[in-house]
Known about the structure:
Blueprint: H1 15-27, H2 37-40, H3 56-84, H4 86-109, H5 113-133, H6 136-142, H7 147-176, E1 182-184, E2 191-194, E3 197-202, E4 205-212, E5 227-230, H8 238-257, H9 293-296, H10 300-320, H11 323-331, H12 341-369, H13 371-398, H14 402-434, H15 439-446, H16 448-477, H17 482-489, H18 496-501, H19 507-513, H20 527-545
Antiparallel strand pairs: 1-5, 2-3, 3-4, 4-5
Amino acid sequence: xxxxxxxxxxxxxxxxxxxxxxxxxxxxxxxxxxxxxxxxxxxxxxxxxxxxxxxxxxxxxxxxxxxxxxxxxxxxxxxxxxxxxxxxxxxxxxxxxxxxxxxxxxxxxxxxxxxxxxxxxxxxxxxxxxxxxxxxxxxxxxxxxxxxxxxxxxxxxxxxxxxxxxxxxxxxxxxxxxxxxxxxxxxxxxxxxxxxxxxxxxxxxxxxxxxxxxxxxxxxxxxxxxxxxxxxxxxxxxxxxxxxxxxxxxxxxxxxxxxxxxxxxxxxxxxxxxxxxxxxxxxxxxxxxxxxxxxxxxxxxxxxxxxxxxxxxxxxxxxxxxxxxxxxxxxxxxxxxxxxxxxxxxxxxxxxxxxxxxxxxxxxxxxxxxxxxxxxxxxxxxxxxxxxxxxxxxxxxxxxxxxxxxxxxxxxxxxxxxxxxxxxxxxxxxxxxxxxxxxxxxxxxxxxxxxxxxxxxxxxxxxxxxxxxxxxxxxxxxxxxxxxxxxxxxxxxxxxxxxxxxxxxxxxxxxxxxxxxxxxxxxxxxxxxxxxxxxxxxxxxxxxxxxxxxxxxxxxxxxxxxxx
Length: 564
């Protein structure tokens, strides 16, 4: 099967980066997942979250499951790729990724979260992993003279997928959005609170409702009036968006996969000289025999590189999974005139831009300054940048100046160049240590680090965010006048826990009745998570420092049995 796609001697190798980018632009749209978060947490309430709506933790974990299965499928797909070639693996990726989006859309439509996990998380994640590995070893073989540049091109599209995905998703969600039934303002209706939920009596029938206040209007998908809306009417448009995207992704990836070609055995580009390549990496790269995949798994270098990739990814992916939410949480209340929902969506797009730029520039630069030095930049500078986020959040709470937004924006964009650069540089780093013979399979095994990072990063951010929000709600509730509390929420403060669980009481609603001068705690709910990210990067820095060349005993010698 692999023999059928061997290129002719006069084949133009520059066609392959275009094919690779096409596939990775499709699967790379996973990085714009945070566009879905604000809508998925109000699928039933539509204008704001209802009691039975999914919470932020639940929907972010769909993204995490997709990343977990990305790493697991890449570990299997990397070795499979060596046997069947990139075309067959790419077709499998198209079926899993496109089909997973369709199944996930069904789960949203029927409000069955397990089906969203199965479709987008498990099936989609398998498509991500297969689509991710299919171009990497192929381009390394086509570009042995510039391995860093080749891997940067191979997965540049993955980092840039959200450039197209973010605005496309925003457009489709708004296109399919349907307004819920509006009953009127709070003043003209009789509202009842039972077990934390709000109900309105209409024509003798009790209907569950959500109440939209001034703070809630800022986070609406489409602008609506303040007042009372019936739960379960209207639609956010996310289910339909999943269906459309699944079909589009499938068609593009099938066409791209059928275009894959591999070089003939022993092919080298014109003017290629192995001894002139990678001088900056002399401390790690040895042009001696290759290391086979099973032997690579026995070396300490593999596990140090695993830690390096895992912790670099964990730090960045925690921000990516909640990017739109983080932007609106930190700056939405203090800089509403600037940080609109559209601005937050553009922020997600810009993450993709810098992620993509970083993949190409850092990977290409590593051909000159060395992979090891490149990763020292990621971890040393990255730790400083993550420390700046809590500082900016604390400052904007008391002094809502645009300067803090600029500082946050610049710091996070630089973080995302290094996040993408880490992914793009790691295959070349692997080939420096283990050679190119089984780099696809070794790379696939190493991507299990991505699976673990997909759990660590979002878990740290969402868990510590929830703890901070619960603490903030408790502190704010006891600052407000008890009479105002009971009048606003239809229940005494003694029922705070139940009201908060039903999403009737939120920080935004409490701030509307809080005493003048009360500082909004929302911008600081991510501070603890950022300090944990700094600790992860410090550990990765020490792992990079410990790397040494692979010992001779692990290298494949001529005449040894081939490791299949």
